[in-house]
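Why does residue order matter? Because the sequence determines the fold. Keep that principle in mind as you read this record.
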Amino acid sequence: MSENSELRRHAQPFQVPLIGKSVSQVATSFGGFLATCAGMYVLNETSFWLALVLAPLAAGFLVRIFIIQHDCGHGSFFRGRRANDALGLACSLLTLTPYASWRRQHAGHHRVWNDLDRRESGADIYSACLTAAEYRDMSPSRRWWYRTTRHPFIANILLPPLVFLCLYRVPFDAPAAWRRERRAVYTTDIALAAMFGGLGLLLGFDAVATVHLPVMVLASIFGVWLFAIQHRGEDVLWARHDDWDAASASLKGSTFLRLPAVLQWFTGNIGYHHVHHLNPRIPNYRLQECHEALPPLRKVPGMSLRDGLRAVRFILWDEDLGRMVTVRQVDMRGTGA
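Structure:
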């Protein structure tokens, strides 16, 4: 048995869900989110700006709910498929993310991440990149488009709310053959319309908008950044398919984001992304336990919060240098600067 296969075998015991921790995480995440939103509704009667103070806290709880949905999509939060899917659907009504469609898209990401020869079969702009050579071979207009769509302000500030509020309302990234997933997108829309329509009739549509829109905007920005940098950074490795294997890609192609304890709690330990990619069936609340138990995982270099903020600039893979680079670095090399 290879060293990488052995590591994956040693990680298997940690994929067993702990029902007490799962239930506790649901209670604290949903309870915290609903309580904070209720507080925002109360404060909104006095002042919108006063209510807005609680929006980052509500967004933090919403990110945690998305992590639960993410675990459910991997079948890791509960032992049974039905329990995972039922909870994942409940999460989707708060995250505005159609569960079935996102689950299948995300499964594609896990099959091809950091594989240079399979980038077009399940990746998105946050978990895929061009090589430096491919970028240099583009026309000036296409290079401009690539730079612009992946600029940190566009990709990490403007685009995330658009994706969650608008693009997820249609099956924009689901192939025509995904009939079940495409129908599920519209079913989610109907449920959302009923839920927010009922809230609007009960509490007022202005109140619903002033509470939930800021929360969704903040949660989408932070959540997308959180997932985007899990395969970014100067030392992240990409490989050609013949040299790619899942375990090596987990240790070298996924990051270990070290966060302060409070942020680690709100992000459901997803910073231990190298462990998650090694075995996606491990529940989020056991990722740290697995990391600390297996020496090869502890050797993965950690990324600080500051490094994570810088990582969004690394959007090209330089095969000659064997590392991620920024557009500016490639342009400077091209001019001989």
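The radius of gyration is 20 Å.
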